[in-house]
Amino acid sequence: MEQLREIDGAIEFFLLDASKNVNWEGSSTDIERNKLEAIANEVNRKFGTALDAFDIKLTWAKLRSLWETWVLVKHYAHRGKVNFTTGTIEMDEFAWDQLERVVPGAEVFRGKPMILPNVVCSIFDRTPSWLAPQEHSSQRQPSSEEVKEEIKTSMHKVYEIDELKSSERYIRFCLTIFKDPEVRETFDYLPNKFLRREYVIKKYNEHHVAH
Fold first, then answer.
1. Domain check: are 50 and 77 in the same one?
2. What is the predicted pLDDT for the residue at 135?
3. Which domain holds residue 159?
4. I want to staple 1 with a disulfide (CB 3.0 to 4.6 A). Which of 22, 59, 131, 208 is the partner?
5. How far apart are CA 129 and CA 122, in angstroms?
6. Cα separation of 133 and 64, whole Å?
7. Domain count, the chain
8. Rounded to two decimals, what is the model's pTM?
9. Helix 53-76 crosses helix 181-189 at what angle (to 10 degrees)?
10. Both 9 and 64 in a single domain?
11. C-beta of residue 4 within 8 angstroms of C-beta of residue 49
12. Counting Cβ atoms within 10 Å, is residue 26 exposed (0-12), middle (13-18) or buried (19+)?
């Protein structure tokens, strides 16, 4: 894959050509085995490379893995932090640390852009729901009762933190920010009370700076 990345237009050509040789409604999104050699020959002829069938299979698998991680990153990253056109993610160190706890492999985009995000997504978004990353295929919105239960669960964790439960302003603030599902998810995924306290205080300070 690295060899193709160094050649202008090679990754895009590879994706478009390879995607024509995938059964998108089948049991996998692998390139059909008998087409690997033909794809390698086409890429080599156009770009002067020396790829073989294994290189083609590996490059396709790496790009698909990047797409799967990108889908989850887009789902879990804070709203407004992901540039879907350039494939860049602008977050502070704390936010990155939390994202990497939720999305294994997300560090691949830490300081590095996603490869041709629009092209990659246009290809791999054809993946059927039963093979796609869970958040990519899930369209159901939680009911109001489910949201209330999620907020209740998050607030229970707030009451376990002495510094927060003793402050009425923090309690009111948490009830407000937990209406945002992304905030609830991040808070609930934090592994201990110390990090949860730091997260709430950080959000509280951000709120007051913004206002």
1. yes
2. 56
3. 144-210
4. 59
5. 15
6. 11
7. 2
8. 0.64
9. 110
10. yes
11. yes
12. exposed
